[in-house]
Every structure is written in C-alpha cells, then in structure tokens.
C-alpha cells in the first residue's frame, strides 16, 4: 500500500511539473543536448534546429550551460554559428564568465551542478520564416597553447532557448 501511495505521489508531482513547464508561453524554443562523460570534444558542434514563423516580434536568445565541479575554468569561450533558411551564416566568438573572483561558480542550482543562462542575442528579430540552425562549439585553450582542449571536462549539457519579450 505504501509503495502504491509513493508511486501515485511521484506521478502527481511529475504531472504537475509538466503542466507548469508546458504553460510557459514565453518560451518559443528550448532544447538541451548532453555532453559525453569524457568531455566536450574539441571542434564538436552541438546543433539545434528550430522553425521561425514570427518575423515581426523581437526575441531574446540564450545559450544554456550546465556545468559540474569538474569544470576547471572561470570562463568559457565558444564559437557559435546561426544559419538562416537562405543559408546566410552569422558566426560569433563569445566569452562568458563561469565563476566569480573567488572561484565560486555562477549560475543557479545545486552546489555540484550549476546552470548558466547566457545571453546570445538580445531583441533579435528573425528576418525570414523557415528552418534555422544554430550550433555551438567550445574554443577553450590552455594558456600559451594554440590547440583547443581536446576534451573539455565539466560541461554536462548545452542548451539553446528563444524567449518572447513581453
């Protein structure tokens, strides 16, 4: 009897959480990709595909990073590529702070896993409707080294989200 109650309670909580998250009309797109336990491989592009129908309303675009305590750096360099339906490409090299001056990780969440919601583009209006592609890869290097870090440890997931501006 107790296990049935626990199971039903878990299902009710899970269903409630699903309803709360699915009712967020502010989100146009939100997806995450898991990184292999060995680490984020150098030159490995994490790809997101999304459809745009609204070409009038500005949106905020975010790169979402979930890191754990194995991440050894206070910052993160990434290279992004936004590909439009007409195959126009916008490539950016970006740098984000991941820890404060004391080494404490920024972001929200548990002490061992932090989530950082990093601005990619603010008030972006998409010029064309259709299928867009967004990819991101890390560009981390050790000081004085030309080659990227082969396996960047500590990044668990990379996400991309598009939010309506109210």
CA-atom Rg in angstroms = 18 Å
Task: Compute the number of helices.
Answer: 1
Which series of helices and strands comes N to C? HEEEEEEEEEE
**Quaternary status of these chains?**
single chain
Shape: globular
Summarize this entry quickly.
The chain has 166 residues and is mainly beta.
What does this structure look like?
This protein has 166 residues and is mostly beta strands. The chain has one helix at residues 2-22, and strands spanning 27-34, 40-41, 46-52, 59-68, 75-83, 89-97, 113-124, 130-138, 151-152, 155-164. Strand 5 and strand 6 form a beta hairpin. The chain is globular, with a radius of gyration of 18 Å.
List the helices and strands and how they pair.
Elements: H1 2-22, E1 27-34, E2 40-41, E3 46-52, E4 59-68, E5 75-83, E6 89-97, E7 113-124, E8 130-138, E9 151-152, E10 155-164
Antiparallel strand pairs: 1-10, 2-9, 3-8, 4-7, 4-10, 5-6, 5-8
Task: Give descriptors for this structure.
47% strand; four-stranded antiparallel sheet; 166 residues; 13% helix; single chain; mainly beta
């Amino acid at each position: 009897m107790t296990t049935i109650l626990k199971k039903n309670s878990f299902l009710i909580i899970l269903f409630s959480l699903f309803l709360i998250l699915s009712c967020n009309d502010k989100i146009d797109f939100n997806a995450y990709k898991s990184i292999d336990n060995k680490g984020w491989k150098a030159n490995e592009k994490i790809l997101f595909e999304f459809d745009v129908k609204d070409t009038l309303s500005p949106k905020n675009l975010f790169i979402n990073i979930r890191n754990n305590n194995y991440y050894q750096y206070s910052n993160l360099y990434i290279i992004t590529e936004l590909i439009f339906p007409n195959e126009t490409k916008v490539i950016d090299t970006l740098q984000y702070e991941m820890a404060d001056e004391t080494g404490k990780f920024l972001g929200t969440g548990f002490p061992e896993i932090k989530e950082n919601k990093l601005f990619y583009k603010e008030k972006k209006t998409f010029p064309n409707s259709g299928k867009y592609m967004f990819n991101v890869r890390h560009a981390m290097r050790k000081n004085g080294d030309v080659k990227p870090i082969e396996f960047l440890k500590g990044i668990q997931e990379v996400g991309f989200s598009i939010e309506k501006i109210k």
